[in-house]
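FAQ

Q: What does a record look like?
A: Structure on top, sequence underneath. For example:
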C-alpha cells in the first residue's frame, strides 16, 4: 500500500543498511530534519539523475543530529532502511518548506550466494590494491552482502542506481561480479600505463639482457 512521506532528493544512492553522514544547510531540509527528530518518523532519499528525481530511492531514519551551528546548519547521521519507489508526483507538503511523495516498497529477496559473495569481496580488495586505495568495510566480511560493498566497487552513479533497482540479492551479486570482471583488467592496465609513463625517458641502471 502506498504511503505519503517527506522526501529529500539527492544526487547519490543510499542503500539499505548504509550509514550516511549529511550536512544540512537549506531551510527546507533543516525543517524536515528537525520534524523527523521530534517525531521519530523516517523520510525518503530518492536519487537525482540528470537533474531529475528518479523513481527509486531509500527510506531512511534519522539516527542523530551530531552538530548544530549558530545558523541552524547541522550535521546528521541517517540509516538506510529499505528501497522505495515513487508512486506519485513529488510536491510541496502543505504548510511546509519541503516536499513529499506517495511511495511503495517493492518486495526484495535477500537470499544470496555466500561463495559468490566471497569472490566479489576478494575482487574488490584486488581493485583497491591496484588503485592504491585504502578503504575499510563497515562490517565483518562474513556478514557483507551486495548493499554493503556496492560503494566500494567503483560503480558510476547510474550503475549504483541500477543495482538499487535489482530486487534480488543474487541479481545484485551477478551485476557486481560482471562489473568487477570488466573493470579489474582496465584498472590493472591503467596502473601499468602509469608505471611506464613514469619510466619512459629516464635512465635506468641495469644489466643488458642480450
Amino acid at each position: 500500500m502506498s504511503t505519503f512521506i517527506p522526501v529529500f532528493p539527492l544526487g547519490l544512492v543510499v542503500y539499505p543498511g548504509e550509514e550516511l553522514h549529511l550536512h544540512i544547510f537549506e531551510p527546507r531540509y533543516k525543517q524536515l530534519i528537525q520534524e523527523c527528530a521530534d517525531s521519530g518518523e523516517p523520510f525518503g532519499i530518492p536519487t537525482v539523475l540528470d537533474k531529475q528525481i528518479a523513481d527509486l530511492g531509500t527510506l531512511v531514519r534519522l539516527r542523530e543530529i551530531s552538530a548544530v551551528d549558530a545558523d541552524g546548519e547541522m550535521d546528521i547521521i541517517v540509516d538506510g532502511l529499505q528501497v522505495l519507489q515513487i508512486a506519485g508526483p513529488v510536491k510541496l507538503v502543505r504548510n511546509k518548506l519541503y516536499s513529499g511523495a506517495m511511495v511503495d516498497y517493492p518486495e526484495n529477496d535477500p537470499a544470496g550466494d555466500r561463495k559468490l559473495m566471497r569472490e566479489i569481496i576478494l575482487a574488490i580488495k584486488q581493485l583497491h590494491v591496484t588503485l592504491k586505495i585504502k578503504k575499510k568495510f563497515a562490517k565483518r566480511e562474513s556478514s557483507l552482502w551486495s548493499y554493503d560493498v556496492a560503494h566500494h566497487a567503483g560503480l558510476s552513479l547510474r550503475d549504483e542506481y541500477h543495482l538499487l533497482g535489482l530486487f534480488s540479492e543474487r541479481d545484485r551479486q551477478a551485476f557486481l561480479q560482471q562489473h568487477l570482471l570488466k573493470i579489474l583488467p582496465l584498472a590493472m592496465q591503467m596502473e601499468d600505463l602509469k608505471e611506464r609513463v613514469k619510466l619512459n625517458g629516464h635512465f635506468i641502471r641495469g644489466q643488458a639482457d642480450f
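Q: Is there anything notable about this one?
A: Residues 114-199 form one domain.
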